[in-house]
Amino acid sequence: NSAIALVRAEPAKAEALLEDLSDLFREALKDSGEPVRLAHEIELAQRYLAIEQIRYGDRLQVSWDIDARVGRARVPPLVLQPLVENAVRHGVEPSLQGARIWVQAEAKRGQAVVLVSNTVSENPSAPGHGMALRNVRERLRLLHDVAAQCDVWREPTPEGEMFHARIVLPAP
């Protein structure tokens, strides 16, 4: 729907959105199950959030802080996608003011640490079933056994409540 709205008014943006969407669909359909580089997953997450940026406009504010050293870490395909989707669904969608999403990736003590954080609305969305997080955890376990983990938590901050989803992986 976002692309349709842009076709006449901003055709270049519509074309970029459709290219990003095409790449996301291609990845989802490919699903070879083979591990991919974390850098590739981050690029897909950037494309996904670019699409959502068009949809939500100023209501979605995204910050990236990516340490290039973690880009070679191996992850299951589309493992980062559910985390950024959840940040949009539970952070941006229910909030009239919108929300901020931060995606960070850093090398720390021989590990690659990816953190997806979002502000939480005063009008929270309906709780999910937790299937996406269970899926992420299981796929990480199958690839890295106990060397990887995925955890989530909420915390109060002076600006309001924050939700965090963190993936810890063996560094390459």
Calculate the terminal CA-CA distance, rounded to whole Å.
40 Å
Outline the low-pLDDT stretches.
Answer: none
Helix percent band: 40-55%
- Structural class by SSE content: alpha+beta
The 3D shape can be described as globular
Sheet with the most strands?
5 strands, mixed
Strand order of the largest sheet: 2-4-5-7-6
Strand content: 25-35%
Characterize the structure shown.
The strands form 2 sheets. This protein has a 5-stranded mixed beta sheet, with helices on one face. A hairpin with a 2-residue loop joins strand 4 (about 100-110) and strand 5 (about 110-120). The chain is built from 5 helices and 7 strands, in the order ααβαββαββαββ. With about 170 residues, it is of the alpha+beta class. The longest helix is centred in the N-terminal third of the chain and has 20 residues, at about 10-30.
Secondary structure topology:
Layout: H1 2-9, H2 11-30, E1 36-37, H3 38-56, E2 60-66, E3 74-75, H4 81-92, E4 99-108, E5 111-119, H5 131-144, E6 149-157, E7 160-170
Parallel strand pairs: 2-4
Antiparallel strand pairs: 1-3, 4-5, 5-7, 6-7
Describe this structure in a few short sentences:
By secondary structure, the chain is of the alpha+beta class.
Throw out a few tags for this protein.
172 residues; alpha+beta; five-stranded mixed β-sheet; two-stranded antiparallel ribbon; 7 strands; 29% strand; globular
